[in-house]
Amino acid sequence: MTGLVFKSTGSWYDVQVDGRHYPARVRGKLRLEGIKENNPIAVGDRVDVDIEGHEAIITAIQPRINHVLRQSVKKTGHSHVLAANIDQALVVATIKQPRTSLGFIDRFLVSAEAFRIPQVIVFNKRDLLTADEREEVNKLINLYETTGVRVLLMCAVRDELEPLLQILQGKTTLVAGHSGVGKSTLLNRLSPDIKQTVGDISDFSNKGTHTTTFAEMFSLNEQTHIIDTPGVKEWGLVDMTAEEISDYFPEMRDRRLDCKLGARCLHQTEPKCAIRTAVEKGDIAESRYQSYLSMIAGEDNRK
User: Fold this and answer.
1) What is the pTM assigned to this prediction?
2) 47-71: b or e for each residue (b if 16 or more CB lie within 10 Å)?
3) How far apart are alpha carbons 113 and 246 in whole angstroms?
4) How far is CA 243 from CA 135, 180, 248, in A?
5) Domains detected in the chain
6) Which residues, 6 or more positions from 15, have their beta carbon under 8 angstroms from its beta carbon?
7) Where does residue 287 rank: exposed (0-12), middle (13-18), buried (19+ CB within 10 A)?
8) At 35, is the pLDDT very low, low, confident or very high (cuts 50, 70, 90)?
């Protein structure tokens, strides 16, 4: 029988089989080709199962369309499969209360692009924006749409959800975002069954308190699923060399071949660099270039 993994805590799983959810465990040690983890089962995996009473026994993992890795919070240099078989990745962001850094947004987009997963940005808290802040967001929307990213500006508390539902319909969407940006509020409105805890904004840090512990999938209908991911500290560039990072910036991908050093150019101080020339001309946004530089330097801009 085939099951779909809705939740993984590392020791037990919630698996849906024929519309019914079962607590599940693994029989023996499973290994997936190309994945080094001893226990690589992730939310979104399709698995072979045996039903024993009220429990499902996972016997094998079916081939994946794709997967997303995250940095291990316990072991430096280790990574884990965060989710599998994803149609698109969505990040909820805000420019105030709290402000999401462009560095984090770009890191999220690059992480998804590395696995060729289409991306969506939802700028939330539209109702809190001043005229100047609205202008700033509109510029960001134009910036990211030119790179092929779908972007929405909305208020998760009050706005109609139809534009977002149209994007989500028929797909499995991975959702991420800092606590406090309204991710849980948005998910709760999309489906009352989600019942995510809403984190308060800390007066001290102006950031939210983390409320999601494990990645978990929820169904909006039979064809539409949302994977809610845990805290953003795990997001990082896994198994990427400095030379390949610019390949995951769509506006840099084609231009990098025009550099004098070609694919070996890191677009820093190298002579006749097509990327730097494009930045100077305004064809590549300065903010995107700065995000790129921080990534190849290994800096942590996930905040």
Assistant:
1) 0.87
2) bebebeeeebbbeebeebeebbbbb
3) 11
4) 35, 34, 11
5) 2-64 (2.40.50.140), 69-75+82-234 (3.40.50.300), 242-296 (1.10.40.50)
6) 3, 4, 5, 6, 21, 22, 24, 47, 49, 56, 58
7) middle
8) low
